[in-house]
UniProtKB/TrEMBL annotation:
Gene label: hpaA
Keywords: Cell outer membrane, Lipoprotein, Membrane, Transmembrane, Transmembrane helix
Residues of the signal peptide: none
Organism: Helicobacter suis HS5
Residue ranges of the TM segments: 20-41
Keyword flag Transmembrane: yes
GO CC annotations, alphabetized: cell outer membrane
Keyword Nucleotidyltransferase on entry: no
Gene3D superfamilies to which the protein is assigned, alphabetical: Putative neuraminyllactose-binding hemagglutinin homolog like domain
Protein's UniProt name: Neuraminyllactose-binding hemagglutinin
């Protein structure tokens, strides 16, 4: 009888040891995978290349100078500040190149308000150019799909996925002004929603919950930033092509009488 009781106690001890080991192994697995969410790869394969080459022939040089005021552009929040700054810088450099190609002297100013032009700038400049607008990139609400991760102990991915197409919205407005009076001579607008910008993207992000024990085995992709850069490259080229088409020497020469009248009214 004593032997039987001792044997039973040994069996109970062994069972407790096995249970303890099982519990420890389980805790080790939970510790290993806890907080290890899905592996999301953010791509960076597309350079921001804001390029445009005018096909217009070089015109004969004139003595007339056109001043380019600092552009006032706003951007959607998915466009990084560095991209916005480059877009603003390059669009003025390309407009300057187009006007130089038309035979005009140009200066890019660090002034965005025509009222802040200096006495010399108002007196000596033949024409001024203002540029303003909004550059907006938004997912197409008709085609964008969003899949959120469902909570779960084991198989939850812990990853939210948005898949869709970026569309361009907003506008670019160009205004020619007579510097001494500040009066607008002519203007035109480019509607960015009319451009053929339809850039696919996929954006994976970690969900509010950590995901299941196997969450770290799932892989996701985020190419939304590359999609933004690709869209900006396309927008820039198409906008510059339209500006190049509209800002002709003939168009600027047609302002001559209005410019002369305004300058005569504001002699310094």
């Amino acid at each position: 009888m004593k032997y039987t009781r001792s044997f039973q106690r040994c069996i109970q001890i062994i069972r407790r040891i096995v249970q303890l080991k099982t519990w420890l192994i389980g805790m080790a697995i939970i510790t290993l995978f806890a907080g290890c969410g899905p592996n999301i790869i953010t791509t960076n394969n597309v350079p921001l290349r804001l390029a445009y080459q005018s096909k217009s022939p070089q015109a004969r040089a004139t003595n007339q100078e056109i001043i380019l005021l600092k552009p006032t552009l706003r951007y959607s929040d998915n466009i990084a500040k560095e991209y916005a700054n480059q877009f603003k810088k390059q669009i003025m450099l390309k407009i300057q190149a187009i006007l130089n190609n038309r035979g005009y002297k140009t200066s890019i100013l660090d002034v965005s308000d025509k009222d802040d032009l200096s006495f010399a700038q108002k007196k000596e400049s033949y024409l001024g150019l203002e540029l303003s607008g909004e550059v907006v990139l938004r997912p197409d609400p008709k085609t964008t799909e969003q899949k959120k991760s469902s909570p779960g102990l084991i198989f939850s991915t812990g990853m939210d996925v948005t898949k869709g197409v970026l569309l361009s919205m907003g506008y670019i407005k160009v205004v020619f002004i007579e510097p001494s009076s500040g009066e607008a001579i002519d203007s035109f607008m480019i509607d960015l929603s009319e451009l053929d910008i339809k850039q696919p993207f996929i954006r994976s992000s970690r969900s509010e919950h950590t995901g299941g024990l196997l969450g770290s085995l799932y892989k996701g992709k985020d190419d939304s930033n590359d999609a933004v850069k690709t869209s900006l490259n396309k927008i820039f080229a198409e906008v510059m092509e339209r500006i190049d088409t509209k800002v002709t020497r003939e168009r600027i020469r047609s302002y001559a009488r209005d410019i002369a009248d305004l300058k005569a009214q504001h002699k310094y």
